[in-house]
């Protein structure tokens, strides 16, 4: 993985006007192409970035400016999103079809964003077509600034573990299935950093550890369908970070990592010097799919034991593990003040929104929905239509309601799904899952407090079970079958933000929506102007540039 050029602003101040002046820049140039690789041992078409799968690591420090010049050498339009990067005032860079026109084949586009006030483990992935089923994802890590204390010692090394399920079929074939109204069914295997281990001692080591040293492993579930359990033979894992928050440092034998989630753990090489397997296996599936990666103690010549540590079973274990995750109130995150100085539990809720994931058919084709509405992408991105003031020609706000009726699961309709949020409102969002499979939700633009996950259905009395003190501030949350989850957040980031199911099939077939949060004053304090370099398409292609926001 190539190191980015790190230049000081003084050298290049003319290049970028949007981003803050004093912070360093990270530059990347990406060639996005198809390659033939064999993640599951059989050659297939994979999306690589600069020839790599997973793609290159974006790695920096809080407040760095990230500039990525993406050359689309695929044969289809392309966008990338930066899962978990909040894009303060800047949904222009979100990289989903509701905010951006896609990058056409044979052309390039430059993303410019700042990882403002964030630390932690994230990943990026392509959001267009079904590209994610062909890879194209990679890690994005943000470190604390030098003077800000981190609640653990700098590890000997950091290891990225992007793990996820995988299909043998190409993304075009999978997409054809869904476009014809069918499900794409079960995945075929699990991979770690693009590879399925043979698990017979013949795989070269993916990670090495020096006896006595401590390593940070950053796990992310970048798959499409399944929750995964990760564990390391003979070793425990000390949890230190979840999606940008420093946690209370509990020790675990294994971790459930649901779709789209990231966790950092510390692992100390304190066992007999030999090889050990890192295992990643599917949860809640009849047939368990799994893979291994080899961790070698330096100087070892003893293979890993073929006896793999068992995965936990059942939902209850997973739910209890969620409940054990706590924000470390006294640790710093991106800012020097302690995380717990923001007392979210004392803020009055101004709005409660309930989202129920539903499924059904429209014209005999399978669709997935939120509160009965299945999202449809538009030729003119929602954000652009709104900015140019022509939203009435493209979509309707608030088709769904905050409190869906009890029979919401019985009917599905298709339309752009956009709800409005009032700038700076403190909202409570309930996710109810009446279905039989685990759900995982991501909200872009924000981090939220994951205050509860429980079985059954939600009612206002359930608020007494919320963790209002030290729930982890993060950006994804799982919801177990026949269960619910509650999150809280302040809508203080103006923009058009995607809330999505991270299950690829559900997402592609409409289980996502957008939250439009407008700056009431159209002020530059709240939101950046559309960059002059923004790609234009659909109805706004030839319209005059709208009046800029005022400062
Ligand atoms: C990632 O960035 C941090 C902070 O700039 C740096 O200390 C670290 O060496 C980088 N790691 C890699 C693998 O580039
Ligand atoms: C495309 O790449 C060229 C060469 O690096 C660069 O000068 C140009 O600004 C890029 N265009 C866009 C739209 O990002
Ligand atoms: C929380 O962070 C503080 C400050 O870095 C650290 O001293 C403490 O050990 C951490 N607490 C737990 C329970 O992890
Ligand atoms: C929250 O609501 C309570 C009861 O309605 C009220 O007494 C209190 O002043 C409110 N607090 C804030 C910070 O608005």
Automatic annotation (TrEMBL):
GO terms for MF: copper ion binding; oxidoreductase activity
InterPro entries: Cu-oxidase-like_N, Cu-oxidase_2nd, Cu-oxidase_C, Cu-oxidase_fam, Cupredoxin
Gene3D superfamilies hit by this protein: Cupredoxins - blue copper proteins
Signal peptide start-end: 1-21
Keywords, in A-Z order: Glycoprotein, Signal
Pfam families per UniProt: Cu-oxidase, Cu-oxidase_2, Cu-oxidase_3
Every Plastocyanin-like domain range: 32-146, 157-299, 380-520
Similarity annotation: Belongs to the multicopper oxidase family.
PANTHER family assigned: L-ASCORBATE OXIDASE HOMOLOG, MULTI-COPPER OXIDASE
Protein name: L-ascorbate oxidase
Species per Swiss-Prot/TrEMBL record: Erythranthe guttata
Taxon lineage: Eukaryota, Viridiplantae, Streptophyta, Embryophyta, Tracheophyta
